[in-house]
Amino acid sequence: MSKIEWKPGTFIYPIPAVMITSGDMEKSNIMTVAWTGIINTNPAYCYISVRPERYSYNLIKESGEFAINLTNEKLAYATDWCGVKSGAKYDKFKEMHLTKEKANHVKCPLIKESPVSIECKVKEIKELRKSSYVYSRNFINWCR
Fold it and tell me: pTM for this one?
């Protein structure tokens, strides 16, 4: 079978689904993001793609901080659930029985059950037509 030509798109798979935490220890949210990646290694920079209408967008924009929490098989259901429910209506930590863990360099909580959590400080938000790309400097990786 020969290849066929398609319009430009986002066909880089597999895409890692991660859980983004934002806010602070009292008012926080978890958002599932599939569009994330590395921009630079030294210093460490990464990005996430967030639509401005998402509840987490303003939490990240106002605080200038977030955390990337990697997922695993045990977190599969919570990762999916947090991606389809709004933080404006649900306390996702409570609903998914996840534990808030204090970070060292950002005010938002980490997910204790996550095997790797990356504390990030926003360097730039690039607003595009439908999504905003949030570029960040990574400060520390927590691995279990």
Answer: 0.87
